[in-house]
Each structure stands twice: as structure tokens, then as C-alpha cells.
Amino acid sequence: MSIKKIAAAAMTVGMVMSFIPASVMAAKPGWDGNDDDGWYYYTSETEFVKSDWKQIGGYWYYFGNEGIMYEDGWYYIDDKFYHFDKNGHMEKNKWIDCGSLQWQDDSPDDKEYQNKREWRYVGSDGAAYTGWKKVSGVWYFFSEYDAMMFYGWHWDQKGQSYYNFDGNGKYRRNCWFKWYNSYGEIEWYYFGSDGLASTGWKKVSKKWYYFDPEEGFMWSGICEIGGKYYYLASGGDMLTGWIKYATLGHTNYWYYAGSDGALYQNQWLKSSGIWYYFDESKEMVSNTTIVINGYEYDFDASGKCTNPSGRKVEAV
Question: Coil, strand, or helix at residue 275?
Fold first, then answer.
């Protein structure tokens, strides 16, 4: 071969070699790369793992679509969150701190959520939990959207009620909970053994309470429920028997609730041999004369009917 042909061949080889990445040229089965450009894992002298998992030395790794090993952070793979340490090892069976919790609510009772951290928990397969999961014997709820542990309120579509998670992410059970609404008013909730906020009638410590059927907050005052009226004390408990209500002007109003808690309305009551009457407003009639079913009845200042037989009103 002539010297010119040898030189031309050498030049051609040099040009081809210049287009082959150095990592491929030097590659052997196993690891190759560096901390700046990333790490690859070769399965042969020319092929490396891409867009796939690989177990190496007892650890699981994931390599992206360009073959670079995932490391030191969170990655979204096949609709799940995974965390890899600085060596590229997939982490599992542990809580992982995801930064400061950005709590937006200004409620006075939200101090337990201040200066908290965001958390995810990765299970035995390395995927971050979503939905309800039990960790070390405690139930938590993790967002279906970003897998973060829940704080605060969570609407349960199946149970048609609310859960509330405390400053440690644990859901409240068998307890009262005070909350300030958007108007700065105090609202009370009761969470049962299933963790759901009670709705409707609920007996707690031998007393009956009524909770809003949609939002779960406790009712108080004179409330219409199921076509009847009930007197729910300031503490929410349903009252029975004689009930006195004093206004700021020191005027006393008397009501009476039967054993079922329903207030008397347009009804007579005989108590200790004395007849009383409760009008449309559910208040005891006193110091007046009224007509009931065509008869006049007189009531003194104490509410006692002084002529229980009444006087027939003559037609004019």
C-alpha cells in the first residue's frame, strides 16, 4: 500500500473515532461515567440501561431515557414518586422530609400546623404511599395528587363527611375539635371511632348533640330539625324539661321540652297540678289572656292558668 493510501485510511479512522463518545469508546460491562456528567451502567461493551430499573449489588437503580442514573432526589416514574439517595440507591420503608409546610390558613387554632415539614413515606417497593396507609400502627392519609402526608381537613366522598389530621398527620378520633371558620367564629366538631366528623344526632358522654348534616359543625340555640324544634344549649347538648332563657335585658323566657327534646308549641302542659300553655313561638304564656279553640284563658305572671276550664267566647 502506498504512503498516500495509508495516510488517507488513518485520517478516515480518526474522523470516525472523533464522533464516538469517549464513554462508549472506553466502556466495559459495568459502571462508567463521572459525577459531573452522570453515571451509566453497561450491560455489554456497547449497550447500557435506559428507561429501566436495574438491581445492582443489592440496590435498585433507575436510568433515564438517556441512560443517566437517577440520584439525590424525587423522580416520577410510571405514575409514582420514588426517591433516590446521592448514590442512586432507591429508598424504601422510610419517611422522607420534603421541605417546609406552606400552611396558608390564618385560623388562631392553626398553630399546631406552623413550622411543620412536608412528608412522604416510601413503602417496600420504593413507591411513595398515596391514599390511606398504616405506618407503625398509625393510619395516615397521603395525597392522591402529590403523595404528601395530609394535614388539616380532608373530605371523604365514600363516608360523605370530613376527617381532620393533626400537626403530626394523625387523624382525630373519639374527640372534640374546636375550629375557627372563615368569619372568625368558633365551631365545634366531634370525630367518632371511625375518624369521621359526626353529622346529625350523636350521643356523646350520655348527652345528645346535633351536627350539621353537610359540614359537621355542632348546632346550638333553638333549632328546627325534622319538623320539630329543639333547644340546644351553648355547649350543644340537647335540653329537656323546663328551660329558662334570659335576655341581655334580663327578661326571662320559659320553654318546655319533652323527653325526646322537642319543644312544646301550641300545647298545654300540666306540671305539679298546674296548667301552662306554650304558644306558636314556643314560649310559655304569662300575664295575659288568650283565646284557645274558642275559650278564653287567663295566665298570671308565673304562667299559671288561673281558669283551666276557660270561658267560652260568645259569638258576636
Answer: strand
